[in-house]
Write a structure and sequence with these properties.
- The structure is a single chain.
- The chain has about 180 residues and is an all-alpha fold.
- The protein is about 55% helix and about 0% strand.
- The mean pLDDT is about 95.
- Pfam families: Adenine_glyco.
Length: about 180
């Protein structure tokens, strides 16, 4: 039996996410935006809730196409509020539209969102050596810094905890515990 990180439940969806995605470095803007949307909707909820609704989010938000999302009309916003397949939080839905616009502003400024976000770690994942649950932080000085920068640019639902979870998800930090089969040997 594979040894996984402490947070992985018996859910096959969770196992697959952990084994194939979480902590794997992501450099393409499309996937970076998808995780940004998912992490902002996750704020205050469990990640498994988001994973269970991920395909619904994909359909509702045009396959996470930030160019389309940035142009959503008021009627599209209203239809999202009625979509039982996603998290129907007015502020989070509104923030997805706002964040899509700001995401593209960062692309203009830096050439890509990837260059911007990965610049914080010199384009290389930070390899942590956490042994147990208590070792893994919810925030770091770096997530505080990135959060402040994103908020200053107008992004919503990007507190330090959300940003650190994002950094973990897209592999900017490798927080697989040292006993996990995914921890690099």
């Amino acid at each position: 039996m594979k040894q996984r990180c402490f947070w992985v439940t018996d859910s096959e969806l969770y196992k697959k996410y952990h084994d194939c995605e979480w902590g794997t470095p992501v450099y393409d803007d499309e996937t970076l935006f998808e995780f940004l949307i998912l992490e902002t909707f996750q704020a205050g909820l469990s990640w498994i809730t988001i994973l269970n609704k991920r395909e619904n989010f994909r359909k509702a938000f045009d396959n996470f196409d930030y160019k389309k999302i940035a142009t959503y009309s008021e009627s599209k916003y209203e239809s999202l509020l009625l979509d039982a397949g996603i998290i129907r939080n007015k502020l989070k839905i509104r923030s997805a539209i706002t964040n899509a616009k700001l995401f593209m502003e960062i692309q203009k400024e830096f050439g890509s969102f990837s260059k911007f976000i990965w610049g914080y770690v010199n384009e290389k994942p930070i390899l942590n050596k956490f042994k147990k649950r208590a070792d893994v932080p919810a925030t770091t000085d770096l997530s505080d810094k990135i959060s402040k920068d994103l908020k200053k640019r107008g992004f919503k639902f990007v507190g330090s905890t959300v940003v650190y979870a994002y950094m973990q998800a897209v592999g900017m930090v490798n927080d697989h515990t040292t006993d996990c089969f995914r921890y690099p040997k």
